[in-house]
Amino acid sequence: MTYTYQTQGTCSTHIELEVEDGIVCNVAFWNGCNGNLQGISHLVKGMKAADVIQRLEGIRCGRKETSCPDQLCKALHKMGY
Fold it and tell me: Each residue of 9-20: pLDDT tens digit?
């Protein structure tokens, strides 16, 4: 399943992700810190969605209440994980 999630409270504006059978197949962040977000995208590829959530949920960026990794988890929750 492919899903586009509009982020809130981060420099990235949205996340495009593909998850099949609970496994993250592809993640692309739009805008934000390009190198870091490419790194996150590559690291989570092939991981179980539940494992991504367990590791990244609740991470904050500076004084912000959320972060791009946390927003990825919110997108996965919206997808039903």
Answer: 999 999 999 999
